[in-house]
Design goal:
This protein is α/β, with parallel strands linked by helices.
């Protein structure tokens, strides 16, 4: 089945910048919309297989590349650099702008959001200001006691070396322990996936292989901090269907216990439609894992269930 793909561009919250994205259209009746937020050093087109599958099953699928990512970045030097100030707020603001664009383009259609990794924290912060019909939160993490330390170190590095400096110290602070439970961790990115191609992809793909700048690490740590802040969780609609999905061996969670603890915390705060799905023998990048077909099928079935609920 041929899937129509349409490029979209819209002004970023960051003055003078434009955001690039794509929309995938189903050929028949539209069941719903899934809007996707990708992760750090990532970009939306990498998830084309997921979006095409969703379009084949009646869903509009749309993504937008964040500031400093993918085809939004105006040059290779801008990959991994988000903004001079408050970039984390601009990431959330741009996602919100795209949400409004899709809502206007497809009125009265159930609208769902999905975020992976850094995108999961963007989505979780976004839910404070909007109420889609549901949220898929993939590859996320619970409260990190080192977030404030990360912010402090990133600010210090930016002050001393410059906001665009790419620091090995910050990389180690963020990811240094992620391979510790992996026996075959001879690859820096082994924690991403069991799939060797997925591990190597982050090195070979010119859109992915730029380490974050000092200021962008600061934005990342802020997102982790605020997504898990009491005020953000408490302002999230309590009746919103949220599904946390994660690999049992994803160190960002951290691991299965971390995601289950996060889900339990939401339930303890009177969230009535929150659940977790753990994919065993999987790591961080579920959409590029050896079991990705199962992941895709679960996402589709969850959306179908929620669309049926909305239409009752």
């Amino acid at each position: 089945m041929n899937i129509k793909r349409e490029e979209v561009k819209f002004p970023s919250v960051e003055s003078g910048q434009n955001i690039y994205g794509e929309v995938f259209y189903p050929s028949g009746e539209i069941k719903g919309i899934l809007q996707f937020a990708h992760g750090m050093s990532d970009y939306g087109a990498r998830y084309g297989d997921l979006f095409e599958m969703l379009a084949q099953n009646g869903y509009v699928a749309g993504y937008s590349d964040h500031l400093g990512h993918g085809y939004t970045a105006s040059s290779s030097e801008d990959l991994g650099y988000i903004a001079h100030s408050e970039g984390y707020k601009k990431l959330i603001g741009d996602f919100s702008c795209f949400y409004d664009i899709l809502d206007e383009k497809f009125p009265n259609v159930p609208h769902f959001v999905m975020g992976h990794s850094m995108g999961s924290f963007i989505v979780r912060c976004f839910l404070v200001t909007a109420k889609p019909q549901g949220a898929i939160v993939m590859g996320t993490g619970k409260k990190n006691p080192l977030a404030d330390l990360g912010i402090f170190v990133a600010k210090l590095v930016a002050a001393v070396k410059g906001e665009r400096y790419r620091s090995k110290l910050l990389m180690k602070l963020c990811f240094g322990s992620y391979n510790k439970k992996i026996k075959d961790s001879n690859h820096l990115w082994a924690w991403l996936s069991y799939d060797k191609k997925a591990q190597q992809n982050i090195v070979d793909d010119e859109k992915r292989n730029k380490f974050f700048t000092a200021s962008a690490f600061q934005d990342l740590f802020y997102l982790v901090k605020y997504a898990n802040a009491d005020v953000v969780i408490d302002k999230t609609p309590k009746d919103l269907p949220i599904i946390f999905i994660s690999g049992s061996e994803d160190p960002l969670g951290p691991y299965e216990d971390g995601i289950n603890a996060l889900c339990k915390e939401f339930k303890s705060r009177d969230f009535s439609a929150v659940d977790a799905k753990i994919f065993h023998n999987c790591r961080h990048e579920l959409c590029h894992e050896i079991r990705r077909e199962e992941v895709f099928e679960f996402i589709l079935q969850w959306l179908n269930k929620e669309v049926s609920r909305v239409k009752k």
